[in-house]
Amino acid sequence: MDFSIPDKIKSIIETIDTFVREEIQPLEEDFLTSPIEQTLPKLEEKRKKVKDLGLWSPHLPEEYEGMGLSLNEFAHVSETLGRSPLGHYAFNCQAPDVGNMEILLEHGTEEQKETYLRPLARGEIRSCFAMTEPEFAGSNPTHMASSAVKDGEDYVINGHKWFTSAADGSAFAITMAITNPDAEKIHHRASQIIVPTDTPGYELVRNIPVMGHTGEGYFSHGETRFTDCRVPQSNLLGEEGRGFAIAQERLGPGRIHHCMRWIGICERALELMCKYAVSRELSPGKPLASRQIIQAWIAESRAEINAARLLVLQAAWKIDKEGQYASRNEISIIKFFVAGVLQKVVDRAIQVHGGLGVTDYTPLAYWFRHERAARIYDGPDEVHKAVIARRILKEYGVQTSI
Amino acid sequence: MDFSIPDKIKSIIETIDTFVREEIQPLEEDFLTSPIEQTLPKLEEKRKKVKDLGLWSPHLPEEYEGMGLSLNEFAHVSETLGRSPLGHYAFNCQAPDVGNMEILLEHGTEEQKETYLRPLARGEIRSCFAMTEPEFAGSNPTHMASSAVKDGEDYVINGHKWFTSAADGSAFAITMAITNPDAEKIHHRASQIIVPTDTPGYELVRNIPVMGHTGEGYFSHGETRFTDCRVPQSNLLGEEGRGFAIAQERLGPGRIHHCMRWIGICERALELMCKYAVSRELSPGKPLASRQIIQAWIAESRAEINAARLLVLQAAWKIDKEGQYASRNEISIIKFFVAGVLQKVVDRAIQVHGGLGVTDYTPLAYWFRHERAARIYDGPDEVHKAVIARRILKEYGVQTSI
Amino acid sequence: MDFSIPDKIKSIIETIDTFVREEIQPLEEDFLTSPIEQTLPKLEEKRKKVKDLGLWSPHLPEEYEGMGLSLNEFAHVSETLGRSPLGHYAFNCQAPDVGNMEILLEHGTEEQKETYLRPLARGEIRSCFAMTEPEFAGSNPTHMASSAVKDGEDYVINGHKWFTSAADGSAFAITMAITNPDAEKIHHRASQIIVPTDTPGYELVRNIPVMGHTGEGYFSHGETRFTDCRVPQSNLLGEEGRGFAIAQERLGPGRIHHCMRWIGICERALELMCKYAVSRELSPGKPLASRQIIQAWIAESRAEINAARLLVLQAAWKIDKEGQYASRNEISIIKFFVAGVLQKVVDRAIQVHGGLGVTDYTPLAYWFRHERAARIYDGPDEVHKAVIARRILKEYGVQTSI
Amino acid sequence: MDFSIPDKIKSIIETIDTFVREEIQPLEEDFLTSPIEQTLPKLEEKRKKVKDLGLWSPHLPEEYEGMGLSLNEFAHVSETLGRSPLGHYAFNCQAPDVGNMEILLEHGTEEQKETYLRPLARGEIRSCFAMTEPEFAGSNPTHMASSAVKDGEDYVINGHKWFTSAADGSAFAITMAITNPDAEKIHHRASQIIVPTDTPGYELVRNIPVMGHTGEGYFSHGETRFTDCRVPQSNLLGEEGRGFAIAQERLGPGRIHHCMRWIGICERALELMCKYAVSRELSPGKPLASRQIIQAWIAESRAEINAARLLVLQAAWKIDKEGQYASRNEISIIKFFVAGVLQKVVDRAIQVHGGLGVTDYTPLAYWFRHERAARIYDGPDEVHKAVIARRILKEYGVQTSI
């Protein structure tokens, strides 16, 4: 076993870490306390700087002007970017675009790549991924009513989606819809289809109010409706009926990105906790850091973050080595384990900050609100646990339903 | 021992419960997803209805057109109102006004009562309580820099405060300031002084951005500054140097109100959890409620809420019977115990709701955000625990500092 | 509501508390570190003293030379006795005899009372209750294979039981067996039958090794076997087919006893924790009690014990007032809530004691071992939670299976 | 990063795993339910087999007839042996002998090696390590009263020790005593001295009753007393005044052994949990494994064990690479993290087993009792957390005392 990080990656991380601290973090106060319009122009400037520094699109191959990092390498970068709520966006590797780029890269036709991937890779447009439907439990993604019916050269799509993150302002939506309702296996029924948002019949109904904000632009979650929405069949991604398979493939790397981003949040929260603990005085000369419970929280956070990171890196290593199928348990485990650590660490950091912790003068309250969903999206913790247990128990000779 | 609730109170609770469900809860969606101006006029109508029904100001004596309930009786009412974020306001018993009314009632001169209490009691004005200072740890309220110096007939106040809840739009601020800096005992140094907000030198610097919102009007937390702010000495509440003593007296009943409000939130969250669990289907005919973990959360929530309520009612009974001093541990215990239950129950309710839980289509996300402070304000949990332990350990012969 | 304890009970508790501290606790060291034979004679002397003081059999009516306390009154006594692992035995109200006495009192014929209850009440014999079977999950008591078949004037019993507590040395076993296998309702099939342990066909197979000890005499858990074991039909308790109903009736009061005993353990553990914390020095003049985490554990234990006690007393009050059926949820809730508090408090007390905590120089390690079963017997926590939730969810219109 | 295990180690682990399952686990029932004398002769036979298979003393160099494994390699072996309470003893790498062998190997003179290490390595004798004193908090090992005073060629030792594990039957005790009371630095005062147990003045006062057992032979914890106990100065280990330094050096590898043993226990507990869950039926055809809470426990255990193992292996890797000093935080972190996982996993496994879980028919109850000390010995969790936090906070510019 070898736990060392290659020097090349260390150096990249260091550069990015410095950039995030010096260029991105200073934008946070505005971002957290003012309408987003105030921050966006400054953020665009930073994106230009990132490009100039050659740090743009770390996850993309050089052919698409990215850094060409492997999954493992990008994992470390994702942690570093996670330090700020603006980090991934500044480097053009924000969800859901990062996943959409991966899908297009892997399954897109040349034409699709030119039309959709290139401008995404350049950061000229944004996109969204329309899967979850309000009428069905998100824990079972095969449970879906949206349909895409062939008609001439086109698909005619009807459906209702929500939690379509960043739909507001997106140029296109990769849309999951049932194309093969009669396929024997339920997970062979859906396909992924590119729907430009200016297609008649596509509608962003509203931005869903989430944790007190309807949000806007990139920072929003849309409710979308497709009414006889007609797109050419050439907009199909991959083969028909392979929608879930493609989503599944995207899941492992996506999980690694997310989890490393959460670990970045944890590291920042721990840093804020320590800084505040040493600077806040309970009485002259006696900092908050002298309290044993604060110390215990710092040590527990350190231990849990270290554990979480090792689990994620090991999962990334295994995906790389044995593929996603063999790594299903690892991918499920990091989902609930890291989300749990995230919630604990952010909660402790807020408590250490006292009243300041619930204000928007630190990013802690933002993460407290918006990362609560970490235990919910992509399947709630409880579903992941049941799925893992079912696989383990199979080795003991029993099939259990979840 | 007798755990029964008198029929009179049962009947009042029932009436109020029906009112909250039928008249107040329907306002929540607007309140949670629109600017507050949209909800305020409707809320004013409800306040009129409450008056007409004779349910106004349940905590005030009939002399002030209140219901004249005892602490214990009001505790039950406070739980019922807690079901909605708008409940207490609709019944004119919202913090901090409810506490300010109690202080004025107990310590105000006749003139102060006429000028400040009467309009508060009628709901014509609002008020705030300016104590916490950003430069000092909130866990030690005697730690304070604001001063009120006598000059002629006046006090001249200088100071800096924050988390002055509902300062925006308040007619006056009950302000804690050091009047007797040389008093031997540190808690004999401060006084409470009424400062009308139109006094020159009083400034609402800003509404503090809390959990993503700067808020406005009643629903805000102000940063306030007093610069050579001059008020007549007749604005002193009670005796000089008794500021902490008066605050202390207000603490016990205030804690009971708060904790019962939290229990009301818990009951609503549990109700929402159950309703959603029975209505959401995992697959046809199989509701979410069939899952064992959901069942465990419901049972645990039921147990914890029952336990929390008994602790609070017992504390209220003891305050009533043996006074606040004898009940200090009980008053501290409910602070952290009930706040802990609150956070757990709301968190579970969100998790049961999945994606819906983080939206503003239920009040859960609102409570998740705004009641995070429950473990912080009025002294963080950790301070309360140390204080309780210190008292217990004294019985074993040891003085320990916290 | 009235949380006060009547003076009469206060005075009884005080007397018993003093007796336990001065007469019973000094026997603990021997009990914990030597074979039980060494302690038994001394314990017999104490039992005589208890009789002389008029404190014998607090749960029995005066007709049976008991103290004639109500369920509520006995609850307080049970807590006080729970301070020592020897408390209940010294006062002749130890499980399972206490439950058996209650059954005989309520359902026994005059002859049964003379033969079995009188000597039990006098403490001349001991008894056991044979219900759980190793082949069936204890969480479903109606799941049972033992049978009692009528033959002439007799029942012929065949069956296999375990966790028959205190079987070793018992004069008789109240035995659950299926007498009416064809009854439509599963819980109308079994009966309770008195089986003297010298009946041919009755066999104590072994004492089960539990937590490192096979135990002996009263302090043991037996595996028992009934092979064509023949007893007269007059040994039937109550009506045929009413076995579960009688067990059920015994459940509520039994739960109150147990839970109050657990609370007594918690109080003793907290007392030991505090005593050790003030006496152990980390460095000269700096006791362990000065550490914030120790303080937090003391405060949390105090809060949780108070909450647990109120829940149990409220359940006892409700049983008394509205009967057991109406109080089913309360009876289930205290099972898992108090067991959880018990485990946490004992665990903390051990941790405070460091190495000493795992030795047998305090009763903490004994409770740690033997009260682990608290979360298991009479139905594991998880089953109780599901049962409670099912009842709550029924109010929301859904029947869920557990 | 590379998380793969070398084939050589995989193959050794497989062999040992098979041996433990087929040869050692079958001895457990006797070990758990009978006096130790019954198991010892069988265990000796197994030890012979282990030697014959070339698996003896995996931690020792080949020069001492060991397997010559590195710390990392032995870590994996230690996990495999941890599956059974008898595993390490059967392979001659049981604590405290394993640590004593390491000390002798590193610091012993040739003569000491011949006299003490050789017979230990061959398994002909046993030894103990006398450090902890009942009068001082174990959390601060430099706090010690035992002294060794030079007199002629000898040291004259006086002192009182407890928790001297396996003292009963040991041939010698490595004893910590103050030799340089005037050394400026407190951790330069003590030395390690070999004391043969037949030395006059050495006394095994008693075996301490721990968790219900006084234990005997290897399976015991002694209280020892040194009264004018005279040994030649040639029995000094390493240099005078270096006692703590040597203990410290032994700490890192010792921690790795222990933690991997705990992980072995966890793996066995999880295996037992799964096996029981699939075999126990709640009703015909519906195994316990179908319950969602059981499934959650299995998944959580899997996640936590994986995380714990990665932390330990990374610590071992870092010790190997950067030395113990640089790895202090990692060594402290695994102490409390793995001990916490251990307690949770064993507790869940017991709960899954219901009544069977508290019996001695599985090793779970043994571990529940005897591994409770994991959170206490070598410094309680709370001390480790404070120490870690202190180091972290130093980077933020503050020195905090623990």
Care to give the gist of this entry?
Chain A has 13 helices and eleven strands. Chain A is an alpha+beta fold and 402 residues long.
Notes on the protein architecture:
The structure is a homotetramer of 402-residue chains. Chain A is of the alpha+beta class and 402 residues long. Chain A folds into three domains: 7-108, Orthogonal Bundle (Butyryl-Coa Dehydrogenase, subunit A, domain 1); 127-237, Butyryl-CoA Dehydrogenase, subunit A, domain 2 (Beta Barrel); 245-394, Up-down Bundle (Butyryl-CoA Dehydrogenase, subunit A, domain 3). Chain A has 13 helices and eleven strands. Chain A has helices spanning 7-24, 28-33, 40-52, 71-82, 87-90, 97-107, 110-121, 243-279, 292-326, 328-353, 355-358, 364-370, 381-394; strands at 127-130, 147-151, 154-165, 172-178, 190-196, 202-207, 215-216, 219-232, 236-237, 281-283, 286-287. In chain A, strands 2, 3, 6, 7 and 8 form a five-stranded antiparallel beta sheet that branches. Chain A has a four-stranded mixed beta sheet with strand order 1-4-5-9, with helices on one face. In chain A, strands 10-11 form a two-stranded antiparallel sheet. In chain A, strand 2 and strand 3 (154-165) form a beta hairpin. Chain A starts with 6 loop residues before the first helix and ends in an 8-residue tail after the last helix. In chain A, 56% of the residues are buried. The interface between A and D is large, with 55 and 55 residues.
